[in-house]
Amino acid sequence: MSAGKPRGGVREPRPGFRCGECGWATQKWVGRCGECQAWGTVEEVARPLAVTPVRTAAEPARPIAEVESESAVTTPTGVDELDRVLGGGLVGGAVVLLAGEPGVGKSTLLLDVASRAASHGRRVLYVTGEESAAQVRLRAERIGALRPRLLLAAETDLATVLGHVESVAPDLLVVDSVQTVASDAIEGSAGGVSQVREVAGSLIKVAKQRGMATVLVGHVTKDGSVAGHRVLEHLVDVVCQFEGDKHSSLRMVRAVKNRYGPTDEVGCFEIGESGIAGLADPSGLFMSRHLSPVPGTAVTVTLEGRRPLVAEVQGLVSPAAGPTRRATSGLDSQRLAMVLAVLERTCRLPMSRHDVYAATVGGVRLAEPAADLALALALMSSFEETPLPQPTVLVGEIGLAGEVRPVAGVNRRLAEASRLGFTTALVPAGTPAEAPAQMLVHEVADLRAALSWASDGPHAAWPNRLG
Fold this sequence. Notes:
Elements: E1 17-19, E2 25-26, E3 42-44, E4 74-75, H1 80-86, E5 90-91, E6 95-100, H2 106-119, E7 124-128, H3 133-143, E8 150-154, H4 158-168, E9 172-176, H5 193-210, E10 213-218, H6 231-235, E11 238-243, E12 250-258, E13 266-272, E14 275-278, E15 297-304, E16 307-319, E17 326-329, H7 333-347, E18 354-360, H8 372-384, E19 392-394, E20 397-398, E21 404-405, H9 410-419, E22 424-428, E23 440-444, H10 447-455
Parallel strand pairs: 6-10, 6-11, 7-8, 7-9, 9-10, 17-18, 19-22, 22-23
Antiparallel strand pairs: 1-2, 1-3, 4-5, 11-12, 12-13, 13-14, 15-16, 16-18, 20-21
Helix pairs in contact: 7-8, 8-10
């Protein structure tokens, strides 16, 4: 709430400086009075210190062991992948912020969650501020989310929303979205910092008083962060990011803040015409199908939270007819530039005279450095037009000197690769890995050793560029 503008009325701000000659008041100090034009007469007004009255608590403090915990029990949402991220489900009185780009599927997912909660006898209130009630009804009919105990309201006024909560007394409240709701007691348009703070604060207060689980939908900026002031993220109990490429059916939900569970879990979903469905085993989405080994492809295992995902990296190197071009899809362009520099310096590849394209399969984004080794060998394979030995997974970070550095979670990565049928793995030297029984693991200390291994493989015949 803005200073000097309390709920229900407007109050003039108290002056901080006053002219000793004419009494003219101002918020800031100035050398010359704005009324009588006298110099050096503006002085600071002494303000009395505010004294906060002492109040008796409505409920006395108790030993922590005597506090009842039944109200904080986790209730599953019915969507296993979302429960994985939340730490088991929704907690009564908890406020969850689900942020994501427009059109990524936030409303569809939450409508499915609301429908499942209503089908289990819970009263659910779904407040939409971006669409009409008829539009939401059509989506609910398309995904099979019509339930008698699922109540719908199209409102953008905070007081009206709170009135709906008072009359419905829901077990679960969904507000889509928090940036579209505004309060008449606060100046500014909906979505502004003051409005978002007031709306979120009021909804959080009601959720805590009623023990009502609440989910707020939030917009994101171009860089992927939650729109508005960061105070919104500090106020809520859980912050989840809903990610996905609009051109791909894959969606991911990850928790960046969670007071009731881990923040290193990721939920995978697939969106389609009939709604959104969880993917318990999404690794197959990130692999392409080849009848025979193809140059320029390599397989790695990335960790999304604690979940290992097998993903394919593709590279294409071709002579440049003019200025060289670099393009990436699903990979960090800075990591690509570094790997190319190391390849040119360590392996004597003229990458500066070639166009280079690198991408992942299935729309997955590989942000961790553990994919460096797969990226380097995919580019080398494309340059030599010779496929890598199959089936092999490559895991390791590449340093500027060409060394292959250890990465975390190698055992989980190898176990997932072995489950999908991979029999060979390349890992950094000195990795304390417990290889599955049917997998052969090779340790490499640097990029030169990795390329030497590839050149000795059954499908490779690369020239000796290691000199």
